[in-house]
Amino acid sequence: MNATTDEFTARPRLSRFLSRPSNLALIFFVVSAGVLMIAWSGTSLLIRYSSFIPSVDRLTLPPVFAVSTLLMATGSALLHGAVQYVRQERQRPFRLCLIAAVIAGTAFVMTQCCGLWCLLASHHASSERNGIRDSAFVFAIMHGVHFVVALLFVVLVSLRAAADCYDHEYSRGVVFCAWFWHALGVLWLVILGAFGIAAAWLALPADLPALDEL
Known about the structure:
Layout: H1 2-10, H2 13-18, H3 21-49, H4 64-87, H5 91-121, H6 130-162, H7 172-202
Helix pairs in contact: 3-5, 3-6, 4-5, 4-7, 5-6, 6-7
């Protein structure tokens, strides 16, 4: 009993504070609200000062999607590094990777929302082909919602890491978080490919003859 009490007292003050579930829940709420507020504010600034002008006659992929894809890949690499570090009991680089992943994830959500706004602001090419763009857009919106959930998951794992909840014997939460982000990244590449196909299809002349007329 005394050994356990001494070990708890010897832990850093932040770790002791976050080790209480009520404190962890409170800090998670505050940090999550702050992260989402930063993402929303950054999105508003990007939209306001964006130089991208949506095309009025065809679907064009916003250049900001290239930045968001790079940030998504950066987040995946950081989470992969976090998994490797925690398995090696290298706590400091493990926590630094998680903090960097939160920053990269916040920037990803910010640029992703800006890109989706650019798509929403683009003019519908024709009523016959709108379904292609709209379907891809709906999938992208749903994907964006999942990435917000993934970002909050990374925030939670980062706070639990600060509370010394992970080590080489217990790291399932970190592994699951990393794989969740990786899976969403692969899905984003699929959606990006769907956008590319839709853009190529909408770029075709609307008066092309049907196959049975050839």
